[in-house]
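FORM 7B - TANDEM STRUCTURE REPORT

SECTION 1: FIRST PROTEIN
SEQUENCE AND TOKENS:
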Amino acid sequence: MDIDLHALWDGAVENNPLLEEFSDGETSAYGVYMLRTIALLRGLEVKASALVNLSPKDFERDWQTAVEATEQALTRIKTVNADGFGVISLGWQPYSTLVPVMAAALASAAKAQKPHLAYADIKCWYWSSVFLERYAGSVDSTTYRDAMDLLGRQADSSKRPAIFDEAVKEVLDNSSFGLRWVARNNSVYKGVMNLVAMNGARDFENNDGISFHELEDHHIFPRAFLRDRYGIKDEAVNTILNRTLITSKANRRISRKNPSQYLKDTIPGEHREAILRSHLIGPEAQAAMERDDYEAFLVAREKEIVSVIRKYLEPAR
């Protein structure tokens, strides 16, 4: 049987808007992800040699299953609520390479021995992968191992995915786990921004949901203020602890002001606490902003964000 992959792909993007959106500019990558998902659903490895030798038997049926499951995965990735993953735009997706694993797990989750556990496992696996930077670099063996672990757990709930033990060791029970020096656009950086979006982040100036606006990755303590007042620069300024998402307009208004000033001038007083909390800036961090104490702010906000990360990883125990 001849299989026209081009025709199958064209049909997939035509009928699945998120697949079309996420694959824009990455058509070849997402085409491979379809094949990887098929391989995983068949219990096969995802190395290139395995993909080129996929059996044509029931291929079109399995392709359709993979496409539908991938659209489900992308829907969850883009959804901004407690059951989604907060990727408000493509630039904030931590990894695209983990999509086949999620798709394969979602394809059969509803028929799992314990469906509620299957969906909880997918969420815990996802956040563990993001904050352990599990899908950086070559991922063939990780993809296969994680998918087999999740699918195996669906069939037998007594089985435990290996990544859960790693999450417990490296994050949940690791008192040294922190974010202070996360200052580049890696999966951890993006994952924190996803959590901010999922927390209902509202714009500093207009108290409106950030998803409705053109956004900028903003310094909470402005770069110019830290340089001029304290001589602080580079990674100490750009740490994820000092970043959040607000509109470009609000960013321009506060770009050189000290926090204690723009808290009064820019953020509406009657909504100030709620707006800051929506950005994972708790009472201690707010108090530090009010007195322009950068070090105290970093300590307080790190505590706040790490507690949220651990909440999402807690099912790994």
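SECTION 2: SECOND PROTEIN
SEQUENCE AND TOKENS:
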Amino acid sequence: MDLIKTYPASKHGDVFMARDCSGRDVLVRDGKPHALDHEAACWLRERFPFTAPSPVLERDRTFGVGDRLGIAAPGHIRVFNAYDAVPVLVQQSVRELTLTGRSWEDILDCVTFMAFREGYTGGFGADGDHLKQKKDIADLLALGFTMVTLDCSDHIRKDDGEDRLPDELANLYLGKAIDLGGGQSIAFSRAELAAAYNIYGEAVEFAASVWDEFFASGCARADFEMSIDETELPTTPAQHFFVAAELQRRGVKLATMAPRFCGEFQKGIDYIGDKAQFEREIITHAAIARHFGYKLSIHSGSDKFSVFPLIGKHTQGRFHVKTAGTNWLEAMRIVAEHDPALYRRAHAFAAQHVEEARKYYHVKLDMAQVPDPAGLKDHELPALFDMEDPRQLIHITYGLILSDPGLHGALYSFWDTHADAYAAALEQHIGKHLSMLGVTKKQGGELK
């Protein structure tokens, strides 16, 4: 057995991970190397339960780190070894899988192997993000995913339509001030209640049907999140309360809910909007979540540094935040730092295909504000990742970049060679996210 490297943290008796002479990581058991395939991942999850996901959202501070590349877990593990928060290390949407050509099995297996290789026993969740179809939910629960994020956007009306309001709802909600604690309360006018019903009534019914089919029996060992954030109009606190109350009436037990907050949570850049209004509203949104016993979920949470302190403060340190694009952007920042020629190739490809990429994401990207790398010196390229428009260019074109055979192979070869640099970058960058949210370091937890 020709091995050029072993991973000491993975040692469990005669089972460990190593790198063979061809440069591939393998699982060694019974004295023989085994490929890191789905069968090996299933064997590890059965033999070593810490390599399998578990429901984690009942913990106060949880943080999703979507890894589109399948190589980010070592850096993520370093962060969560240091900070008092629990990760959802497996987190992808159908859109992301389509754009990267990966599968649900693949994203779960990659984290299983990395948890074993790094000796990570702190626990992690696995989130099927933005699911719209019941078949996908059934498939993921069968695979062992431990979180379902139900995307209800197809069932949310874009306006309040006609003023339709069933008498039952009018009798339940009108003429009352509902105390949320902490000086917060909710009261509906007839127009507000009618709008909440007309916009979100169908979404409530859809979520309740999913709960009844998959969760009500108690067989699903998974957390349930309702996402109503993929819409143009913000969710008012009154509408949030209506959705939560109607779900409660149907017996639905949420772990988290993701409203559509005021302002804009665009991909890979800071919050856009009136921070004073955001603070006023998140105080009430957080009070509603506490009233019903679930946590707020913050989607598109990458790099929202200006509002992180408000989120941490007003949720009283109980939140779920999702990131994905920022992990990819850090991977590309490392390329810009260490291989300027490769980065220039990727950037030029992104600029050429940006209009095709725009249909997948809503961003404010202005290509006129993206400097041409041809006019930059090599050492100036990493600074592009400190600018909003270049960040959004590279963010939305990840699927196209990775689908190009020449770029795909060159990039993965680079990241394999610079794995420690990427892990260190994630350690610092995701650590900044957690620190700004008010998450403290564990005793003895220090970033390397």
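SECTION 3: OBSERVATIONS ON SECOND PROTEIN
The radius of gyration is 23 Å.
Residues 190-215 form the longest helix (26 residues).

SECTION 4: SIGNATURE
Preparer initials: ____
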